[in-house]
Give the backbone structure.
Amino acid sequence: MSSSMSRSLGFALRSASRSAVAGSSKQLLTATAAPASRAMNFSTTRAAFNSASSKKEQDNQASGEAMGATDKSGAADTEALQTQLKEKDAKIKELQEAILYGKADYQNLQRRSKDEKAQAGDFAITRLAKDLTSSIDILGLALRSVPEELRTAPKDLDTKDPRRVVADLYSGVDLTSKSLLDMLRTHGIVQFDPTGEKFDPKEHEALYQAPVPGKEPGTVLECSKLGYKIKDRLLRAAEVGVVQSS
């Protein structure tokens, strides 16, 4: 073999060797770069996941804090509303009691005014009633002064007969006395005779005391002047004689 051929063959071998080495290096670099690329992508994905997880945790924490703050705010508002309701209930109760007290006071005022008005009317007639009772007493004396046999007269007597005149006069005075008593009765004034009753110093005025056999001591023996009441109140005490204890 000639030297030129030898040189050509050696050059070809070295070129092939370098090509093979270059191919192997390229494959080796490619094989090495792929895991590195995958590692880089995994690292990037992991970092993104960690960032998302961290952000989610932060969001959850913020939401929890917001919910906690909302719950606290809601609890505070509820407590404030309950306090206001209690205050309003107490105020309503106070106003209701005030209304009841005011109504009771008004009713008492109406009752007192009515009683005072009635009493004023009673007192207004008291003086006149006392004067009328005195007149009735005089009429009573006149009636008692007529003997029993002259209080009535036969109808066939002449109108000018003294017995008929006395009888008619007695009848007229008796009717006048009864008319006055009826008029007093319409105003709540009544007459009472305590003869035979127990002596009551609140309603009776004792003129004398006398021991009387067969009569209970302390009772009214006779009544000189009848008593009068005006609507269950004493207008005039009865003047009486009382049985004295022996």
About this structure: Residues 191-246 form a domain with the Nucleotide Exchange Factor Grpe; Chain A, domain 2 fold (CATH 2.30.22.10). The beta strands are 189-192, 204-210, 220-225, 227-230, 233-236, 238-243. The chain has two helices and six strands. Helices lie at 3-144, 162-186.
